[in-house]
Amino acid sequence: MKKVLTILAVLVLLALIVVGVGNWLLTDDDVDGPGPGKPTSPPAPEAQNPPGCVDVEVLAAPGTWESKADDDPLAPHANPHSLMLNVTRPLGDEFSPDKVKVWTLPYTAQFRNMNAQHEMSYDDSRNQGFERMKEELRSMHEKCPATSFILTGFSQGAVITGDLAGEIGNGRGPVPADRVLGVSLIADGRQELDKGKLVGAQGIRGTGAEIALNPVSGLIQPIVPGATMRGPRPDGFGELNDRVNNYCAPADLICDAPADLGNALVRAKDLVAANAVHAEYATNGKVVEGQTVPEYIVGWARDLINERVQ
Question: Most exposed: 40, 128, 212, 293, by fewest CB within 10 Å?
Answer without folding.
Answer: 40
